[in-house]
Design brief:
With 365 residues, this protein is an alpha+beta fold. It contains 13 helices and seven strands. Belongs to the 'phage' integrase family.
Length: 365
């Protein structure tokens, strides 16, 4: 932890490689307020003084006025537009949350060219040179999924800005992100599923969570909200019916199979949702459930497994048991058949390989 030239101001290097700036409130050395900006920001001195005097309580109290024509201004205007899109049902709140999370990455990025070298992008003219964007892409090489999503945001932001006359060109349009995906979440194996269930016995919320994931193949953004209100009767059988949170997904309706019905009926505490916290309350967000599920996985000796890996395992198991591409599409809520093809394609290749190599079985060797 390093001290800067301001009394009570601390620079704290984070594990992520970012820098956090905090201020000790004068007269209360145990109280520290995190600043959302660094010393290079034009409003830093004013914000520092307010934090030093204890006028502000948290970063959310700080209202920064970005200078028009800067990267920070364009990012702020675009995200405000996206918020309005979400409010009118024209965009997903998950997309908004993801792009809001990319805001610090973009604004704290340091320029590497010209007279602006070393300055944060936040205060620079809004049309970032293509070579700077290419350097950002290359720095994200180890996380191809993140790189693609960051550049989806940048391309959409500049397209929005061009349509409204804020900028003349879209510098992100020429940047391609073609890094090979590392395969995403690791699918759970049968041994993984067994190991988890041996540690978390039936009747526990951990067991209920795995069962819900496995027998609905739902995303975690849906899992934390599913409950008895989503049950319906079709031909005397209980089904679950819901609209996935992910934008573009189709309505899902699937029967509640016996293992899931047993888990639901064995719950000791009944709430408005199937999955409840230790206090018997619904999880407030998908992130809250994700963090708890990670804890349960670690407790079962599976620290590298995730909820999305169960969804992938369900897709593979469905294919292995003869489900067609379109049946998996209906269960997973995919809008495009090609998305479900990844599950059936690998199984079909295995079957073709088995059939092919069997033709050598009677060879006189």
């Amino acid at each position: 932890m390093v001290k800067l030239g301001y009394d009570g101001l601390l620079i704290e290097p984070m594990a992520s490689g970012n820098i956090r700036y905090r201020v000790r409130v004068r007269g209360n050395k145990n109280r520290r307020i995190t600043l959302p900006i660094g010393p290079e920001h034009p409003e830093f001195h004013q914000i520092y003084l307010a934090a030093r005097m204890g006028i502000i309580e948290s970063p959310s109290d700080i209202q920064l006025q970005a200078s028009k024509g800067t990267v920070e201004w364009l990012v702020s205007e675009y995200l405000s537009h996206l918020e309005r899109m979400v409010s009118s049902g024209q965009a997903s709140h998950l997309t908004l949350k993801q792009r809001q999370n990319f805001r610090p990455l973009i604004l704290t990025r340091k320029s590497t060219s010209g007279k602006s070298e070393g300055r944060s992008w936040a205060g620079l003219p809004l049309e970032i040179p293509a070579e700077e964007l290419a350097a950002l892409r290359d720095d994200l090489m180890a996380t191809p999924g993140k790189a693609k999503n960051v550049f989806k945001m940048l391309k959409a932001m500049y397209k929005w800005g061009c349509e409204r006359g804020h900028c003349q060109t879209n510098p992100a349009a020429s940047i391609s992100v073609n890094y090979m995906s590392q395969g995403g979440a690791t699918p759970w194996s049968l041994d993984d599923l067994k190991k988890y269930r041996e540690h978390h016995q039936p009747g526990t919320m951990a067991h209920m969570t795995l069962t819900l994931f496995m027998f609905t193949a739902c995303r975690i953004s849906d899992a934390y909200q599913l409950g008895r209100e989503h049950e319906k009767r079709i031909n005397g059988t209980t089904w679950l019916s819901w609209n996935p949170q992910k934008k573009g997904s189709r309505q899902i309706e699937i029967p509640v199979l016996p293992p899931l019905m047993i888990a639901i009926q064995s719950q000791k505490v009944v709430g408005s949702t199937y999955l409840l916290t230790e206090l018997g309350k619904p999880f407030r967000s998908a992130e809250g459930l994700r963090n708890k599920f990670k804890d349960w996985c670690r407790e079962a000796g599976l620290p590298d497994r995730s909820s999305h890996g169960i969804r992938k395992a369900a897709g593979h198991l469905l294919a292995l048991h003869g489900a067609t591409q379109y049946e998996i599409m209906a269960i997973h809520g995919h809008a495009q058949a090609s998305t479900s093809q990844i599950y059936t394609e690998s199984v079909e290749r295995l079957k073709l390989a088995e059939m092919g190599v069997s033709k050598l079985g009677n060879l006189n060797w």
